[in-house]
User: What shape does this take?
Amino acid sequence: MKRNAMAVSMLLLAAMLFNAACSAGSGAGTTAAKNESGSQSAAENSGMDSAHPIKVAVAAPMTGDNSEYGIGFANAAKLMAKKWNENGGCLGREVQIVEYDDKNSSEEATTIAQKIVSEKDEIAGVIGHFSSGVCMTAAPIYEENHVIEISPSASHPDYSSIGDYIFRNNTVISKEGGASVDIAVNDLGKKKIGIISIMTDWGTNTSGIIKGILEGMKDKGVELVAHEEVMEGSDDYSAAIAKLNDAGAEAVICCGMYNLVAPVAKQYKRVNPDIAIIAFSNAYSTQLLELGGDAVNGVCFPVIFFADSEEQSIKDYVDAYTKAYGAAPSALSSQAYDSVGMLLTAIQNVGDTDSEKVKDELYKLDYHGVTGDTRFDKTGDVDKAFVKVTIKDGKFVKMD
Amino acid sequence: MLLQQIFNGLALGMGYALIAVGYSLVFGILRLVNFSHGSVYAFGAEIAMVFIVSMRLGIIPGILLSMLFTGILGILIDKAALEPLRKKGSPPIASLITTIGISNIVTNLLIIFLGSEKRNFPNFFGHSGIHLLGGTVSMTQIMMCVISVILMLILVFIVFRTKIGLAMRASQQNAKAARMMGIDVNFVIRFTFFLAGVSAALAGVLIAGYYEIVYPNMGFMAGLKAFSAAVLGGIGSLPGAILGGLIIGNAESMAVMFLGSTYRDSVAFIILILVLILRPNGLFGRKGITKV
Assistant: This one.
């Protein structure tokens, strides 16, 4: 009898977990379905071949903790697909975006990568995944099966060297780190630098790179006074901040996303209102302003995409994005937008979706997008010019 | 700096204490560790955000409504998932695992409806602070302590001075005998879940206001650490929950100061393991209770 009851309760639990998984999955499923029907009607109007669409996979966290990034990628990708479809599609075929939800977990990403490579005759390439660690578990699967992967966000140095089919439309962190240190030392004139970093592969690696750069500037009187590693999303950073402040830091480089920068700025300014806070381009998002409020005024960081740019093509893109999704695009979403554009342009130039030819074309491509002129080097990395941005009165402005 | 770290630790600990109270309430009556409590706490903060910021109902009505709704969520959880298990006479482990499942469901529902991003939560008490012996205590920290103590006094009053409290204690001692005396044990349990939900909502609102941040997954780590606090204080004991929370909060602050931020999150769980080995009943726990 007891065993029976146990079995029943286990079943119930399994059913519940399954339910939770389903409800999470169905959310993403319906958006994908909606998207497809939307683009189909566009296809009917322009007389494109929608029976043989070119499918581009967007694999990123659509649910869970980092879903805002994945949804941003998917939104940007759909916008780019719409742009192509309005102009007759790619190779006269309709462009379709297929979303995959990896929940920013390496395990899920592996399953998704295997699913994508099993359908590689239909899928022209993958835009994703989101975090460097997840990208690096999925990348070998894509490489082995000759599927093109362009990550709009991975910045770990080792990512793109995994293979020829692996690209990134984001600067390597060593270059961006140099730009952040440059802001702290040359633009703000700070000598005593502290680091606060999240305990992920990316965070630890980035803080190591920053340390190395600071080490090389010792002769200029620049000094690393303290380095604190914190758990991502622990919300309370006051203890680490008390240590940094005690060590006499004049500027703090925050190795983390907006969800680290905003609370650190708030909690640090309660202790020391004069602290200078420097971040990275992945903190460039309107959520930083919403979450940080007054405290993030004065936070500086280098970006390769700046939404308030004077350039007409960027203005048009930002307007279209804002109109469609109700908020200005973040830097990473914009990099996803360009990634889709580059992949489709390469396919158009080659006249075929054969991944080997498209890959070769990508290495030759000179793409002028909203995130600047992009050209992949031989490992699949990009080198872009940085714009230094700061926050003034609750708005992002260029640094003078 | 030591003093500042102690103040930080006390504020952090008060947060854990407020959540730990909810664990203790439910454990006291059901002998069940309710792992869905962390997500209920996140629900309280998120729903308060909806009332205060999106619907502009004002701070006090917003908090009260969120306490009411979160209390109802507690009742729903019991009604939908735990009561059927009790009726079937399932072993305690089944209820325990069920609460973990519920926790996932609540968190994912919040993500589906409100999104996973971290949002700004209004700070109620301003940023003014009092300088004390070289450290700074903020108004928010003081109010957190005051409100937590008031909440605890109210809970103690309910449990020891009211009729429903008498019924709660009776059900706790012997559910079968209580039922024979005409106590509606299921109602008492639902009431307990309601109280736990109310205290979780208050904890969520205060902590979200302190850090000025709110997001669906905020209950996961906080819930686990509050569980350690509840075990340290003696699970089932209300003053124990408060003391346990304060100790865990301060231990974390001290760990950051002397060992580095890297060790911070492990401290709560090291304490949990040590307590379970050295003093399984916790600081205030009664002896001889059969644990789940």
